[in-house]
Design goal:
There is one protein chain. By secondary structure, this protein is α+β, with helices and mostly antiparallel strands. The chain has one domain. It is built from five helices and three strands; from the N terminus they run H-H-H-H-H-E-E-E. Strands 1-2-3 form a three-stranded antiparallel sheet. A hairpin with a 2-residue loop joins strand 2 and strand 3. Helix 2 packs antiparallel against helix 5. The termini are far apart. The structure holds iron/sulfur cluster. Iron/sulfur cluster binds next to helix 3, helix 5 and strand 1. It is found in: Cytoplasm. Keywords: 4Fe-4S, Cytoplasm, Disulfide bond, DNA-binding, Iron, Iron-sulfur, Metal-binding, Transcription, Transcription regulation. One of its GO terms (molecular function) is dinitrosyl-iron complex binding.
Length: about 110
């Protein structure tokens, strides 16, 4: 019997893994089921906040999403989108800030 990473019940109970485990799991899945292989991989490391949010959304349908996220947390990924979350300096952050200096005074809405 072959155990598939497509079985979401298996991916619910994940422990921290290294990058090799993720690579092995991804190798068992058809490439067209892995959003970061079927879309422009630059989205996962994009400068644009909207592109980053789009990559995070695409990860939600990935069959190895839970494994990808747990591994990235364990490795403390320095940057990029992993498992549907944005990492910066080893921690998950909510959103990517746009480039440039923040406004000195917020503009009234
Ligand atoms: S969860 Fe996202 S970054 Fe991880 S393998 Fe899937 S598509 Fe790629």
């Amino acid at each position: 019997m072959t155990i598939s990473v497509l079985d979401r019940n298996l991916t619910e109970d994940v422990s921290p893994r290294d990058l090799g485990d993720l690579h092995d799991a991804a190798a068992q899945v058809e490439d067209e089921l892995l959003p970061c292989r079927t879309n422009n991989a630059e989205l996962w490391f994009a400068e644009s906040p909207s592109d980053v949010e789009f990559a995070k959304t695409l990860c939600q349908d990935c069959p190895v999403q839970a494994l990808c996220l747990s591994g990235a947390l364990e490795r403390r990924e320095p940057w990029g989108v992993w498992g549907g979350e944005l990492f910066l300096q080893g921690a998950v952050i909510a959103r990517k800030r746009p480039r440039g200096r923040p406004r000195k005074n917020e503009v009234a809405a």
